[in-house]
Each structure stands twice: as C-alpha cells, then as structure tokens.
Amino acid sequence: MIHRKKNLEVHDAKRRWLNSHDIGYQKSMDNRHIQMIAIGGAIGTGLFMGTGGRLQIAGPALVLIYIICSIFSFFILRALGELILNRPSSGSFVSYAREFLGEKASYVAGWMYFTNWAMTGIVDITAVALYMKYWKIFDGIPQWIFALAALVLVSVMNIVGVRWFAEMEFWCSLIKVLAIIVFLIIGLVVLISGQPVDGNITGLHLIKNQGGFFPHGLLPPLVLIQGVIFAFASIELVGTTACECKDPKTILPKAINSIIWRIGIFYIGSILLLILLLPWNAYHEDQSPFVTFLSKLGIPYVCSIMNFVVLSAAISSINSGLYSTGRILRSMSMGGSAPKFMSKMSAQKVPYAGIISTIGIYAIGVLLNYTLPSKAFEIVLNYASLGIISSWSFIMICQLRLRKAIKEGKVEDVNFKLPGAPFTSWLTLFFLFFVLILMAFDYPNGTYTIASIPLIALILVLGWFKVRKRVHEISKQYLEKTDN
C-alpha cells in the first residue's frame, strides 16, 4: 500500500512537471480556428491531385479503401482525444510518451515526427513554386523566388503570434472546404438531373459497365492503402493546439468528432460522386479528377481555380509544419532530448527557436529544388510516411497506457473515450504495421524506405547517447523535488 501510494505521488509529480512545460503559451485560438485546423489537417493535396491516379489503379474500389482508412483515422483521433482530455499539452503525443512510456520513447516520437514535417516541408516548398509557375504570367520569374516568398510569408505568420498562424490556417482550410462543397453541389445536381457528362449517362451503371467494383482485382486496392492513409496525415495536429485554445476540454472533443463526419462527406462523398459522374478510367494521374469532371461541363477557368486550391493546401501544410515542430521541439527541449535553446519563447509567446530551426530545414528545400529530380522527392515523402506511422503508433500505445494508469488510480478517468478500446487500439496498431508491410511492396521507393529502417534506428541510437546525460539530469531534478 505504501509502495502504491509512493508510485501515485511520483506520477502526480511527473504530471505537474510536464504541465510546467506548457506555461507561457497564449490561449488565443477560438472554436472556429480549431474546427478549421482540424478539418484542414485531414484535407491535403492528395485528395485534389492524387485521386485521379488512384482511380486508375483501383477503380471504384477506391471508395472502400477510403472508408477503411477513415475508420482507422477515427480511432486514432479518438485515442488522441482521450489523452488530450486527460492532460492538454502543446507537446501532444511526445509529452504523453514521456509520461507513460519514458524518455527514450519521447525522444523517438519527437524526432520521428520532426522528420515527417521536415521532409514534407521540403516537398511542399517546391510544390508551391511549381503551382505558381502554372500561370504563364510568371514564366519570367525564377522558381526559387516563389519558394522563398512562400517560406518568408508562412514564417512571419508563425513568428508574430499564434493568432496569426490560426487565421492563416483558417482561411487556407476554408478554401479547401469550399472547393469540395462546390464540387459536391455541382456533382449532385448533375447526377440527380440525369444530365449526360461527355456523352456518358451518369449513375451506378458506370461501375458495372467498366469491369465492376474491382476491375483490376483485389491486390491493387490493397497496395493503395499505404498511399491513401497518408492523405490523412496532419489529423494529429489538433492535439498540438490543446494549450493554445481557450477551452480545450470543450472545444477539442467537438473538433475531433466533427472531423469524422466531414471526412465521410468530403473524402468518401467526393470519390463516390466522381465514379458516378464519369467512368473511373476517364480520370488520369496527371490531372485533378475535379478538373477532369468540371472541364467536361465547360466551366471556365476551372484549371486555374483548382491550381489556386492546391496552392493554398501546400501553403497550409508548410504553415502547419512550422507550428507543430516549434511546439514539439520545445517540449523535447524541456525534457532534454532536443537542444536547450529550442525551449526559448518570444515576447509574443511563440517558441521561436524551434520554428527557426525548421525554417532552416525548409530553406534547404529551396536549394534542393535545383539539384534533385522529382523521384528524389518521392523518396523524401516516403521517409515522411515513416514519421506519420510512428507518431500514430505512439498515440495508440499511449492511449493503452493511459487506460492502464486509470485502472491503477494514477490519473482520473475521462468521459471522451475511444469506442471499443482496447480492441480498437490493438486493431489500429495492427493496421499501421500492415501499412508498413504494404510499403515494402511499393517498389522501388517504398522498398528502399523500409530497407533503410535499420539505418534510421542506428541514427536514433547514436543521437540518444548524445542527449541521454542531459535527459537523465533533468529527470533527476524533478525526482529530487518530488522527494522533498
């Protein structure tokens, strides 16, 4: 009994110490900001640009793949919601890993997540430049200028204050949402009216007449899971906002629940409409499927409009990357697993040191734009995928450990839970492992990425030996305070 009481006291002291890492942040985000950040994180350029190629590979079965991935995204978000309601933290799952799994786990979780955003940002910086060059009026302007301008704009918005980040993210997300809503309305009107599109009568017969639901068999859609699941990358961003919104325990559950049904409408509804409006093989990898359909209706400037939408999506991704890495790096620094200077805050209550460090990585992306071919960027994105899988896995493991801590009486229970846990928790972890296996079969990029995991592990081990002394010193300090 005495030993149990001591364990509870130690855990409570650790939580107080972890909560001290979040002191200094401004609670500037309103409900509208959190709602849009949440849904914006779930809607990326993959939906607008990548769906055409995926329809070519999987046919109508792509709808089923999105349904499966949406279900597991729901599980991940609700697991994160449990952790947030128990203890809101700007360090998100990195802070939860420190609480429930220890310093080594927190170190791995943090640096893998940083790797994800560093790699993603490099690609998005280049994407912004390419999208700007789409308009012929900019032909005479060097591509690197657009990349640099985007980086400067987003950097300033992040440095001057969290409210500016939130506003920028709100409007970028709103552009994406409005684009999908407009497509859904036009598509439904065309479908209900029975108006032919490019000589094709719309409806379910388009599936039957083009080889059925699985025109290429079961294997191609299965392999696509590893690509589709990464379309949902950034859904975990909502956890990082916990300490900077006005009422996290009220706002965040609503935001998390709203993501689920919006994903259902925006992702699944959009893809279902696409295959009911045109034959699935009418869509192509090199063109947005929304552009393919809307151009058939003769809607003017549709390509320019969609280019503006994906441009805003890329800027949104860069914006999110700077925001999240700044907070995550500060949390890691407070625990000792990142350089000490990254814990610094500005007068505007912004963790500027971590943000500037990420800006440095993104600036490298501007330079790489000249020297690396497009295939190299695909490899970079695959490494980002490893970061996402590890981050989501840590969320699920921490949620399982939270449930264990609740049973042991170490922490209070929460009323916002992952349905079906622990079964759904373990099922999600199995699913994420399955995605890793599928990546290995995606030759050559996915295969090489999986083969490099031992090298990544070696780098992490070497890094841990470099920081472990400081980590242990900081841990020792809070334990001494507990004893006193």
TrEMBL record:
<feature type="transmembrane region" description="Helical">
    <location>
        <begin position="63"/>
        <end position="85"/>
    </location>
</feature>
<feature type="transmembrane region" description="Helical">
    <location>
        <begin position="177"/>
        <end position="197"/>
    </location>
</feature>
<comment type="similarity">
    <text>Belongs to the amino acid-polyamine-organocation (APC) superfamily. Amino acid transporter (AAT) (TC 2.A.3.1) family.</text>
</comment>
<dbReference type="GO" id="GO:0005886">
    <property type="term" value="C:plasma membrane"/>
</dbReference>
<feature type="transmembrane region" description="Helical">
    <location>
        <begin position="447"/>
        <end position="467"/>
    </location>
</feature>
<keyword id="KW-0812">Transmembrane</keyword>
<feature type="transmembrane region" description="Helical">
    <location>
        <begin position="36"/>
        <end position="57"/>
    </location>
</feature>
<keyword id="KW-0813">Transport</keyword>
<feature type="transmembrane region" description="Helical">
    <location>
        <begin position="380"/>
        <end position="402"/>
    </location>
</feature>
<feature type="transmembrane region" description="Helical">
    <location>
        <begin position="298"/>
        <end position="323"/>
    </location>
</feature>
<feature type="transmembrane region" description="Helical">
    <location>
        <begin position="350"/>
        <end position="368"/>
    </location>
</feature>
<dbReference type="Pfam" id="PF00324">
    <property type="entry name" value="AA_permease"/>
</dbReference>
<feature type="transmembrane region" description="Helical">
    <location>
        <begin position="423"/>
        <end position="441"/>
    </location>
</feature>
<feature type="domain" description="Amino acid permease/ SLC12A">
    <location>
        <begin position="33"/>
        <end position="474"/>
    </location>
</feature>
<dbReference type="GO" id="GO:0055085">
    <property type="term" value="P:transmembrane transport"/>
</dbReference>
<dbReference type="InterPro" id="IPR004841">
    <property type="entry name" value="AA-permease/SLC12A_dom"/>
</dbReference>
<dbReference type="GO" id="GO:0006865">
    <property type="term" value="P:amino acid transport"/>
</dbReference>
<keyword id="KW-0029">Amino-acid transport</keyword>
<feature type="transmembrane region" description="Helical">
    <location>
        <begin position="217"/>
        <end position="238"/>
    </location>
</feature>
<keyword id="KW-1003">Cell membrane</keyword>
<protein>
    <submittedName>
        <fullName>L-asparagine permease</fullName>
    </submittedName>
</protein>
<feature type="transmembrane region" description="Helical">
    <location>
        <begin position="259"/>
        <end position="278"/>
    </location>
</feature>
<dbReference type="InterPro" id="IPR004840">
    <property type="entry name" value="Amino_acid_permease_CS"/>
</dbReference>
<feature type="transmembrane region" description="Helical">
    <location>
        <begin position="144"/>
        <end position="165"/>
    </location>
</feature>
<keyword id="KW-0472">Membrane</keyword>
<keyword id="KW-1133">Transmembrane helix</keyword>
<feature type="transmembrane region" description="Helical">
    <location>
        <begin position="106"/>
        <end position="132"/>
    </location>
</feature>
